[in-house]
Fold this protein.
Amino acid sequence: MILERFNAAAKRGVYSLQEFFVLSGKALGFIFVKPFYTADLFQQMDTIGVGSLGIVLLTGFFTGMVLALQSSVQLQAFGATDYIGSLISASMIRELGPVLAGLMVAGRVGSGIAAQLGSMRVTEQIDALNTLGTDPIKKLVTPRVLAALIMLPVLTVINDFVGILGGNVIAKFYLGKPSALYWRTVFEQMLTGGFTLRYIPNDFIQGLTKPFVFGGIISLVACHFGLKTTGGTEGVGVATTRTVVTASILILVVDYFLTQILLAVFQP
Amino acid sequence: MTEEDDRRRVTERRSPNEKDATAMPRRARDSGRVRAAIRTELEEVAEQNETKQPAAARNPQNVVVAIDHVSLAFDEPILEDISFDAKEGETVVVVGESGTGKSTILKLVLRLLVPDQGRVCIDGEDITHLSFDEALKVRQKMGMVFQGAALFDSMTVYENVAYPLREHTTLGEDEIEARVREKLQFVDLDPDKVMDQLPSELSGGMKKRVGIARGLANNPEIMLYDEPTSGLDPLTTATITYLIIKLQRELGVTSLVVSHDIRSAFRMASKIALLAEKHIAFFGTPEEMTGSEDPYIREFLGGF
């Protein structure tokens, strides 16, 4: 009895995983296949990018501030508060910027996508698209995935910048360090990480690859759970919850492995 | 009732149906406003028809939709050895109790589902083994009206009706607007009033009509309706029924309707297929159905 149930659950899991990869393959493949739904793409870029600007600005700024505040205590013990800029710069650009932007967008945009596609599924709008001769993956999934792939790195750069700015505020008003010193250490940190192709700082490679991958994870997970919604409005809630949980966990786990790979490849 | 009986009945009833099956309402037992409403509407249609012949010359021998010994199971069997067909210009209504897999039949015809056994043919072409892209092409021959209308709620009524045109034709904006107005007028909606509204601002009956207009936009050969009258008040039910009849008469499209509303089924059907316990228990004209001595059919009609 228990074994049977386990068997069924395992089968469902594998099947779902297969569906996810088929969806991902199609969605990414359709980026290069006509017709292009450009209007949908811009609309999604607006929802995902511009729409998430507020929360990204807020989280970035406060994270930068609290990071400066906390580390100032540690740095004071070593008399190294002059270097607070490099600490903030490294942690924001390499880790906190991408991960925080990813988590916030997963919560805000991922849930939105899942809920929207889920309701379209339960009100037969997905079937209607199919009936009207449109591939729903092409029309709905591809623009969302592409928009997320483009906009998440942009959001991350903004997040990084306001985070470092937050650190600047604390360094100046709490630690009494001049802004010029703060920003010099910030830029020094970027340059000491080494370069790829001579001109691209390695910190930037890390900081921009991650959000690109996270954007794909968020949008694909959301579309996957949204499109396979069953069971009416209750199912929409389930799909939304699953999306946020799965995408958040995936972001944190993938972040670790991605960091290992990127460090191995790009760090001298 | 054995399976063999079913099959015999189905084959007996399958002889070509020469009568124009969309004559006046066959059952005059109804009472009140609803009947009056339908009467006058039908008379109007009949009058119009004297002057206006169907646009397409119909050949009533052409089988447009054929369902051939189809079986389908998900976790448990849903349909077993289902066979019936719709000839050009006919309206076939599939009736049966709720939850008997009626809507599944429409999904098979649209090839949103593929049968486990048997085949589904559209215009003589077997669509069972088509690829996804080929299936998208075949679907363009069909217009589907969903139970909840399934209008895209992020688009206005205009954009909804224009959607299939934008997707599959190269019509200019003027032509699209003309077509959208024509279709909205056909379903008795005032284009100027509704075009800029969002689906959420419309009543249930209006949504259904917009759904029909969208299904019609591409001038399909086949119209499919999933429970067109469910959840509507009697008057709206009557007008939707009248619309389906008008559509068949004026445009000569072949229609496949899935309904549990036996009353409106009798008004619009050229043929009725009764789905019971995964099988087609009866397939034939409404007159044949009322004349049937079969206890299950009598019981099913008992509520009518």
The first strand of chain B starts at residue 63 and ends at 73. Residues 32-51 of chain B form the longest helix (20 residues). Chain B touches chain A at residues 107, 110, 112, 132, 136-137, 139-140, 142, 144, 146-148, 150-153, 163-164, 167-168, 214 (CB under 8 Å).
